[in-house]
Write a structure and sequence with these properties.
17% strand, 5 helices, alpha/beta, six-stranded mixed sheet, 156 residues, single chain, Rossmann fold
Length: 156
């Protein structure tokens, strides 16, 4: 896993299930990995909103607003992770800068810095464990809720 910082320890804010949007943006239709991760997260007690492949950035932002998500997981097998900085900009423009975004899949080492600089919390590559993914999503989801509350939002 490549990350910008260590996630905070869980707090009482994580009492309600976290809401996690698992999606694929762009033209990549390979969804086996994202379906597996969605099942991991669901089995860990999170509410998972799963989209079919080929989502557009605007659609993901709309879903994030409608579903009041804490975390967005973007799966990339091809080069669709290169669209994620646009997603980050669109989330901030929609007032969703607190939502944690993680990327999973095949991301060449030289393409990691632009993702992390754009605000992606972590990139999980092949070999990332179930516990590593579920744990990171849980702690960053709590951080997202804390930031939302600090900005005047409300907890579920």
């Amino acid at each position: 896993m490549n990350e910008t910082s260590s996630p905070p320890a869980p707090t009482a804010l994580d009492a309600a299930p976290l809401r996690v949007l698992v999606t694929k943006i762009g033209l990549d239709g390979h969804d086996r990995g994202s379906r597996l991760v969605a099942a991991f997260l669901r089995d860990a007690g999170h509410e998972v909103i799963y989209t079919p492949p080929w989502q557009q950035v605007a659609d993901v932002v709309t879903l994030a607003v409608q579903e009041d998500v804490d975390v967005i997981g973007v799966s990339s097998l091809a080069t669709d992770h290169l669209i994620v900085p646009d997603l980050m900009d669109a989330l901030r423009a929609a007032g969703l800068g607190h939502v944690a975004v993680v990327v999973g899949g095949i991301v060449p080492e030289q393409e990691l810095p632009p993702l992390l600089e754009a605000g992606v919390r972590a990139v999980f590559g092949p070999g990332s464990s179930r516990d590593e993914i579920v744990g990171a999503v849980a702690t960053w989801g709590v951080e997202a809720r804390t930031a939302k509350l600090a900005d005047g939002g409300f907890a579920r």
